[in-house]
Specification:
Layout lengths: L5 E5 L1 H15 L6 E5 L4 H13 L6 H10 L6 E4 L2 H10 L3 E4 L19 E4 L8 H20 L5 E4 L5 H4 L6 E5 L5 H6 L2 E4 L9 H8 L4 E4 H7 L8 E3 L4 H13 L1 H18 L2 H17 L2
Parallel strand pairs: 1-2, 2-3, 3-4, 5-6, 5-8, 6-7, 8-9, 9-10
Helix pairs in contact: 2-3, 5-10
Length: 296
C-alpha cells in the first residue's frame, strides 16, 4: 500500500476501474497522488461523429463531457494533450490541469521536392466507422478524383492494417492498399504530401506530428488544424471537410508548388522542435511531477 507515490491512469474506463480498486485497497488511508492522463476527451469525438452523420446539433454534449470529466474527480491532477482540451477540463474540473503532448525525434528526410511523388496516409484502418476509415473513404471517393483531374499520375498510398470492408472496396490502380509495413521511412522519404482529412476525433493527431517530424508537409481537416493549434498556410494546409473541392485544391497546391511545400515543411519542423522534441517533453513531465509534489 505504501509502494507507490504517484500513479498515472489513462482513459476513462481505466480511471473508473482504478477508482473502484483504490477504494478497496486504500480505504480511508492516504493514497498515492493520482494523475489522470487524458489522451482525449472522448465525448467531444462522439459528439462530432453524431453531428456529422445526423446533420443535427448534439444536445447533450455538455452533460456527456461533464460525466466523463466527473470520472477523474478523485485525481490530484489531470494531464491534457493540448491547450484546447485543457480549457475544456477547466470548465468541469477544479484541480490542476497540465499539458503533455507527443515526444518525437525530429528527423526529417532530405529528399528533394522534385524526387518525391504521391499522397500518403498512415494509420489503423481495421474497423468500419472508425475515424481513420471514415476519413480515407471520404477522401478517396470525393476528393481524390478531383485531384486526379489535375495530377493524373498521382497515387494515394494507404499504409496500415486495413481489414475494414470499406477500405478494401477502395483498392484500384490509383489507390494502393499497402497494409502494415515494418519500415515507414521508405514512405516518409519518398512521398510528397501527407493527408489527415479526419472528420471526427479527440485529442491531438500523433500521425500528423510524426509526418511533420519526418519532413512531410500535411493537408488536414480544419478539425485537425484546430486540435494542433497550427495556422493554415503556415505550418499546415487545411480545408473544410464540407468542401471536397477546397480540400482537393489545397492538396494540388501543396503537391505542385515547390516554394509552398518547402515553407510549410520548414515551419512545421520549427513548431515540432518547440512542442514535441524529446527534451521539451521531458521538461513538461518534470514540471508535472514538481507541481504535484509541491502540494504535499
Amino acid at each position: 500500500k505504501e509502494y507507490y507515490t504517484e500513479i498515472f491512469v489513462s482513459r476513462p474506463h481505466n480511471m473508473e476501474f482504478f477508482t473502484q480498486v483504490a477504494k478497496k485497497v486504500y480505504g480511508s488511508m492516504v493514497q498515492p497522488k493520482i494523475i489522470y492522463d487524458a489522451e482525449a476527451i472522448f465525448s467531444l469525438r462522439d459528439a462530432k461523429k453524431y453531428e456529422l452523420f445526423s446533420g443535427k446539433e448534439h444536445k447533450n454534449i455538455a452533460n456527456n463531457v461533464a460525466a466523463e470529466v466527473a470520472l477523474v474527480s478523485d485525481a490530484d491532477m489531470v494531464v491534457a494533450v493540448s491547450n484546447k482540451e485543457r480549457q475544456v477540463f477547466r470548465k468541469y474540473y477544479n484541480g490542476n490541469v497540465g499539458v503533455i503532448g507527443h515526444a518525437l525525434d525530429i528527423a526529417p528526410f532530405d529528399t528533394d521536392f522534385d524526387e518525391r511523388a504521391d499522397f500518403l496516409f498512415i494509420g489503423n484502418m481495421d474497423y468500419d466507422g472508425s475515424p481513420n476509415v471514415d476519413s480515407m473513404t471520404w477522401f478517396s471517393q470525393h476528393v481524390f478524383p478531383l485531384i486526379l483531374e489535375q495530377i493524373p499520375d498521382a497515387k494515394l498510398k494507404l499504409v496500415g492494417t486495413n481489414a475494414s470492408s470499406e477500405i478494401q472496396q477502395l483498392a484500384e490502380d490509383s489507390v494502393m492498399l499497402l497494409g502494415r509495413q515494418a519500415d515507414l521511412d521508405e514512405y516518409y522519404s519518398s512521398c510528397k504530401v501527407f493527408l489527415a482529412p479526419t472528420r471526427f476525433a479527440g485529442g491531438i493527431p500523433y500521425k500528423v506530428h510524426e509526418a511533420a517530424a519526418k519532413g512531410m508537409p500535411v493537408v488536414a481537416s480544419e478539425l485537425i488544424r484546430e486540435q494542433l493549434g497550427w495556422d493554415n498556410g503556415k505550418e499546415i494546409l487545411s480545408a473544410s471537410v464540407d468542401d471536397a473541392a477546397q480540400f482537393a485544391s489545397q492538396c494540388v497546391d501543396l503537391y505542385q508548388d515547390k516554394r509552398l511545400w518547402s515553407d510549410i515543411r520548414e515551419n512545421a519542423l520549427t513548431r515540432m522542435h518547440k512542442e514535441c522534441s524529446v527534451s521539451e517533453i521531458k521538461k513538461e513531465i518534470a514540471e508535472i511531477f514538481r507541481r504535484i509534489e509541491s502540494e504535499g
